[in-house]
């Protein structure tokens, strides 16, 4: 998606060769016009798949998932990183290692909201090592639901996550695939 690539070049911040900050427009301060276009693109890509639920993980994917869900006219579920008093009863649980935070979380979704009748599209802001997506995939499979695929805003194609998830037979559509980046030269290269 050229619009997203151009925005990354303009307002993204590179740290070293592995960290790309997009917090000016995607996952801290959010450019709703841009995210609206992202939602339209995910609808174009997955619109014929019978999606009836969108699943993301707390917290950065929630806004993107919500705007995307408007185009599908379906609810959003977000996997919580901590069990709270608000979640009563049975839950699906999976472990996720956060690349950004460097820690392992138990993510949970109430069994009330995810079941065998669901056709689920995963949405997230980044794909790096694939741990978050693996955790979400496990939740979908534990629920007996059908995984339609994953919509990712930014994939770091030089890290193993995309290849790993695709090797599991999951359809992954990434709107901007970063081939390489370097803070010293302030350069970023996208995959064709």
TrEMBL record:
Residue intervals of the Phosphoribosyltransferase domain: 53-156
Gene3D superfamilies: 3.40.50.2020
Gene name tied to this protein: xpt
Entry-linked PANTHER family: HYPOXANTHINE/GUANINE PHOSPHORIBOSYLTRANSFERASE, XANTHINE PHOSPHORIBOSYLTRANSFERASE
EC number(s) stated in the UniProt entry for this protein: 2.4.2.22
Keyword tags: Cytoplasm, Glycosyltransferase, Purine salvage, Transferase
Known partners and oligomeric status: Homodimer.
GO molecular-function term, one example from the UniProt record: xanthine phosphoribosyltransferase activity
InterPro entries: PRTase-like (IPR029057), PRTase_dom (IPR000836), Pur/Pyrimidine_PRTase (IPR050118), Xanthine_PRibTrfase (IPR010079)
Subcellular location: Cytoplasm
Catalysed reactions, semicolon-separated: XMP + diphosphate = xanthine + 5-phospho-alpha-D-ribose 1-diphosphate
Pathway field: Purine metabolism; XMP biosynthesis via salvage pathway; XMP from xanthine: step 1/1
Family: Belongs to the purine/pyrimidine phosphoribosyltransferase family. Xpt subfamily.
Taxonomy of the source species: Bacteria, Bacillati, Bacillota, Clostridia, Eubacteriales
Highest taxon listed in the record's lineage: Bacteria
Its biological purpose: Converts the preformed base xanthine, a product of nucleic acid breakdown, to xanthosine 5'-monophosphate (XMP), so it can be reused for RNA or DNA synthesis.
Binding site residues for 5-phospho-alpha-D-ribose 1-diphosphate: 128-132
Binding site for xanthine: 20, 27, 156
Protein name: Xanthine phosphoribosyltransferase
Pfam family, one: Pribosyltran
């Amino acid at each position: 998606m050229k619009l997203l690539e151009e925005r990354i070049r303009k307002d993204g911040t590179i740290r070293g060769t592995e960290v790309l900050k997009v917090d000016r427009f995607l996952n801290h301060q959010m450019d709703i016009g841009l995210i609206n276009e992202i939602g339209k693109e995910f609808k174009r890509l997955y619109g014929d798949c019978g999606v009836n639920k969108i699943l993301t993980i707390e917290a950065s994917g929630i806004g993107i998932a919500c705007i995307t869900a408007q185009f599908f006219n379906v609810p959003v579920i977000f996997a919580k990183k901590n069990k709270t008093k608000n979640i009563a009863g049975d839950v699906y649980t999976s472990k996720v290692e956060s690349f950004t935070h460097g820690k392992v979380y138990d993510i949970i979704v109430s069994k009330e909201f995810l079941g065998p009748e669901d056709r689920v599209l995963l949405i997230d802001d980044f794909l790096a090592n694939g741990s978050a997506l693996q955790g979400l995939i496990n939740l979908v499979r534990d629920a007996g639901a059908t995984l339609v695929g994953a919509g990712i805003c930014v994939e770091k194609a030089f890290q193993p996550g995309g290849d790993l998830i695709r090797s599991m037979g999951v359809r992954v559509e990434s709107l901007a695939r970063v081939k390489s980046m370097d803070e010293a030269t302030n350069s970023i290269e996208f995959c064709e």
